[in-house]
Amino acid sequence: MEQLAQPDAYDSPWKEILESYFPEFMTFFFPEIYAEIDWPRGWESLDQELQQVVRDAEMGRRLADKLIKVYRLDGQEQWVLIHVEIQGERDEGFARRMFVYNYRVFDRYERPVVSLAVLGDDAPGWRPSEFGYALWGCEVGIRFPVIKLADYDAMWAELEASPSPFAIVVMAHLKTRATRRKPEDRLRWKTQLVRRLYERGYDRRDVLELMRFIDWLMALPAELALQFREEHKRFEEELRMRYVTTFERFSKQEGLEEGLQLGVQAGEASMLKRLLLRRFQQLPAWVEQRLAQAGREQLEGWFDRVFEVERLEDVFA
Question: Which of 30, 95, 143, 197 has its CA 20 to 30 A from that of 258?
C-alpha cells in the first residue's frame, strides 16, 4: 500500500481539548501535581518546540502530545516542563518513546521534565510506566505516571457526578470505542452526552468546546449525522438557546454540510473524505479510489478509525 508522509502536526480532538482545558486536565487526572503548580503565573504551550525536538523519533499511534511550561509553587525551580502523551492504541515502543522524548526535551531546555501518559486503548493488562537499561554498573531509565481511560468504565457513576469537563471527555472516549460498528448506539450516546452539557450548567464557551470534541470524536454515518443535528436543533429550540448556530458552523468548517445533502452512501464517502483531509492534510489517489468503491458498511468502519489511528493507511487496514 502506498505510504503517506507523516503530517507535521497531529490534529485530533484530544489535541484541541488539551489546549483549551489544560488546568482542568491536570486537576482531573493528576491532582497531586496540579496542587504544586503556580497556576496564577500562567502556563505556556510549547508544541512547536516539541515537534522540532522529536521530529525524527518514532511517532507511534498517539492521539496527541503536549509540552507545557509551568511554574512551581515551592520555588525550587523557576519553571519546569510537563510532557503529556495521549496514546490511542497498544504500542510496544511506547515506554521507549517516552524516555526518548523526556531526555531530548531535557537536553534542549536543561530543565526538569515530567512525563505523563494517558492510555486510551482497550487492553486491560497493557500499562507501560517505565523504560531503562543497565550495563556494567551504569543505569539509565525513566518511570512515569500512567492513567488508563478504560479503568473509568467501572467508575461511570463518578463520571456522571463530576463537574469536570474531562468527565465528559472520558465518557465520550469510552462510548466512542464501545460503539464501534454500532451506529445506532453511538447516536443514542452522542445525544445523551451532548444534552448532559446543558444539564450540568456549563457556560456557552464550555458547551461549544465540549460539543465540538464530542462531534469530532463520535463520528456518525451521514444519515444518522443529519438526524442528530435535526434532533439537537429541536432540543435547543425547546430550551430557547441559540448555541446551535455555532454548532452548525462547526459542521460547515468540517466540510460536512455538502456531504449531508448528498445521497446516503455518496454523502458518507464525501464526509469521510473531508475528515481525512482535515486529519492528514493530503490524500493520495488510492484513497480516492477506495472511497469511491466502498459500500456503506465499509465506510462506517472507516469512520470509526479516523481519530483512533496515527497513519492514514491504518484507517483502511
Answer: 197
The three-point CA angle 23-20-156 to 5° equals 70
84 contacts: CB under 8 Å, gap ≥ 6: 18, 25, 64, 65, 66, 67, 68, 116, 117, 118
Q: pTM score, two decimals? A: 0.72
Burial 259-273 (b: 16+ CB within 10 A, else e): bbeeeeeebbbbbbb
Q: Which amino acid is at 79?
A: W
Terminal alpha carbon distance of the chain: 10
Reported as a single tens digit per residue, the pLDDT across 176-229 is 999 988 999 999 999 999 999 888 878 888 888 899 899 888 988 888 888 988
Q: What is the pLDDT of residues 288-302, one digit of tens each?
A: 888 877 776 777 778
Q: Angle formed by the axes of helices 204-217 and 244-253, to 10°?
A: 40
**CB-based contacts of 105-112 (< 8 A; 24+ apart in sequence):** 105/50, 105/53, 105/54, 105/67, 105/81, 108/49, 108/53, 109/81, 111/77, 111/79, 111/80, 111/81, 112/77, 112/80, 112/81
